[in-house]
Amino acid sequence: MKLKQLATAATAAVLLAALTACGAPGSASNPNAGSPTEGGATGDGPYGLEIAENPEFEAGTTMATLAEAGTITIGTKFDQPLFGLLGTGDKPAGFDVAIGSLVASKLGIPYDSIKWTETPSNIRETAIQNGDASLVVATYTINDKRKALIDFAGPYFVAGQAIMVLADNNDINGPEDLAGKPVCSVEGSTPAAKIAEYGAQVVATDVYSNCLDPLRNGQVVAVTTDNVILSGFVDQNEPEFKLAGDGVTFTEEPYGIGLKKDDQAFRDFVNDTLEEAFEDGTWARLFEQTAGKVLPVPTPPTLDRY
Ligand code: GLU
Predict the structure, then answer these.
(1) By percentage, how much of the chain surpasses pLDDT 70?
(2) Ligand 1, pocket-test mutation among 186, 206, 252, most atoms within 8 A of CB
């Protein structure tokens, strides 16, 4: 991953020169957090998914094209423990990866035939629009601004924005405490925009793992993004960091699966796949095998078939 600094007026970014000296994915103490546990998986790949045998789709649909190709490219994060982390293996692991693998399985595509591409927050819409990824499963909040460019299936999970600080910092307990202070987040993310509304000086980089060293060395006082991403970093780097204010959240971040705009049949197919997994327990099992190693297993959200 290139360690490039990005900023826009929207995030009122303050850039720090030393942001580039950061750990690459997998260099942390617990590089495999987010990888599946053993057991409970009797089907294909690490998530034990049943691969659909010769599934039939209407000719000309995206499903038919992908099933015929026998492969799919899925965008995800490569540096986020619990949801999408490229550890020591050659494929990322986590709940987002499991959800992407689930959709592929219903297309008759086994785990080993999926191509994973890294989609940092700021390039997700472009990756979908350009066809670089057929699906993006990447802690990707559904919102109207993004819906103008791409479509979402889901949500398949609901997170909330939180704040991560050094473990011995008791001065920051909520977003109000960040006014005028340097706070690291990621360009093109909803948390970067939100924390600017609280008057924070947003230090914007391209992937969240690039925020860890600036927090360690005091260039920023906090990192902000979704609670589940930050919980992954806390767990990965015990005992360095903690969630501020006992993990208080101040937004709702419904995670959707991004796909090309106006491909209604494909969106319906992905939503049907999620709905079935919510109902038959597959969704809960996939969560338990991945993020559930650190986070409590929630109940499935309600789909928004807008
Ligand atoms: N869910 C938020 C977003 O989609 C933050 C996490 C991320 O950047 O991936 O912007």
Answers:
(1) 87
(2) 186
Kindly tell me if the per-residue pLDDT of 281 is higher than 80.
yes
Q: Ligand 1, atom 6: nearest CA belongs to which residue?
A: 139
Report CA(123)–ligand 1 centroid distance (Å). 11
> What is the per-residue pLDDT for 54?
94
Residue nearest atom 9 in ligand 1 by C-alpha distance: 139
Give the chain's mean pLDDT. Answer: 90
Residue 115 in this model has a pLDDT that exceeds 70: yes
List of residues 6+ apart from 39 with CB closer than 8 A:
none
Ligand 1 midpoint to CA 187 (Å): 10
The separation between the first and the last C-alpha atoms of the chain, rounded to the nearest angstrom, is 34
157 CA from centroid of ligand 1 (Å):
12
Report the nearest atom of ligand 1 relative to the CA of 208. 8
Please tell me the pTM assigned to this model. Answer: 0.89
Give residues with Cβ within 8 angstroms of 131, minimum separation 6.
260
Q: Hey, is 73 helix, strand or coil? A: strand
d(CA 103, CA 101): 5
Judging by beta carbons within 10 Å of its beta carbon (0-12, 13-18, 19+), is residue 130 exposed, middle or buried? exposed
**Which domains can be identified in the chain, with CATH numbers?**
22-156+254-293 (3.40.190.10), 161-247 (3.40.190.10)
Reported confidence tier of residue 41, pLDDT bands at 50, 70, 90 = low
- 297 CA to centre of ligand 1 in angstroms: 20
Which residue in 226, 235, 91 sits closest to 159, CA to CA?
226
